[in-house]
Model the fold of this input.
Amino acid sequence: MGGGILGLAVARELKARRPGLTVTVLEREPEPGTEQTGHNSGVVHAGIYYEPGSLKARLCVEGAREMYAYCERHGVPHERCGKVIVARTSAELPALDELERRGRANGVAGLRRLDPAGIAELEPHCRGAAGLHSPGTGIVDFAAVARAIAGELREQGVEVATRTPVTGVASGGGRVALRHPGGETRARFAVFCAGSESDRLAEMGGAPSDPRIVPFRGSYLRLRPERRHLVRSMLYPVPDPSLPFLGVHLTRHIGGEVSLGPTALLWPGRRLGSTLAWPGTWRMARRWWRTAAVEARHAVDRRALARAAAAYVPELQPGDFEPWFAGIRAQALGRDGVLVDDFVVHHTQRALHVRNAPSPAATSAFALARLLADRAEPGLD
Ligand SMILES: Cc1cc2nc3c(=O)[nH]c(=O)nc-3n(C[C@H](O)[C@H](O)[C@H](O)COP(=O)(O)OP(=O)(O)OC[C@H]3O[C@@H](n4cnc5c(N)ncnc54)[C@H](O)[C@@H]3O)c2cc1C
Done:
């Protein structure tokens, strides 16, 4: 369930393991891959940031390898353009050291420490006290990957049923039934990869209510074409280790554009009621209100966002940027107010529910799909 990159990768993995299996993907939108999968930075992460031993660390490193291999086999445009994480001042050096330690512990290949001259050699317009170069980080259009998987599935006779919003889940008699406007799909086992709706569907299927999804809007600016030469590959600031998904970065995209973003603004939208009713929302707000204020300023004030980027590319001016697209992160938040960091999967009687699959889940899709298929397989017999 869910025709994002993850749901499609799970269907592909199950079909590869058991060619005789009847697999169906249910997706509410008219096309697959249009939610988070189609609105992100497009970065194939190498696996630097994540706590060694976490699912993110293992599945990102494996997943990036498989993502490149898939793109090569299926002719999906991609590029290993590399990235530089920049410590703007010496105060950020301990955090850069920690990233390097994590990257090496996670088995990220080719990491190299840079001094200011080394940064300038790779990125002539960037300034910093030190840098960490990851040559294996790359770019791809994850929506194009999702379309390629959907095409492959259809060729194998797998139905990718679009415009099919699942509205109810029930299990009994060794089956799980998914209700939708076209009727009901009954299956021996279901894997839910529902992004922004994952908590609601998990609860319907009998999983605990904790954690809840809180949507964070991430908007991007893009560099005007005549200023794109200021960034050759990707430039990232050193993130706050307790909020690693924050920190606007400059990223080259497959189409040649260079983006600045994403911001991170709590964006309840249609989920306003459930977001406000969740105790974790208020606990998070009490803890992070200062950070939230900075993010809100970045989201509404293009100059503030451009100034953040000028801290490591001083030639950048607010007038160099124009508004671009936005994506909504489906981020899980615990009742205790803690943003869930790692990927989370809950098992119910006849289903698996992916409860938290934020970045780098697109990079990790094939590796995460393998883990989900391992856990789903006993339920297929
Ligand atoms: C701003 C931003 C930047 C990011 N940058 C990166 C990056 O650079 N690299 C990276 O690896 N990751 C990145 N990510 C994370 C990445 O996009 C996601 O982790 C990944 O796309 C998750 O895939 P998914 O299939 O779980 O989710 P989605 O793509 O959201 O798919 C979920 C699908 O379920 C469907 N669905 C939901 N409810 C129902 C229902 N009731 N019935 C039927 N269908 C339903 C939705 O329509 C959707 O198609 C970023 C995310 C954002 C938002």
Summary: The first strand starts at residue 24 and ends at 26. Residues 2-7, 26-29, 35-37, 39-43, 45, 165-166, 193-195, 197, 218, 262, 327-330, 357-363 surround flavin-adenine dinucleotide (CB under 6 Å).
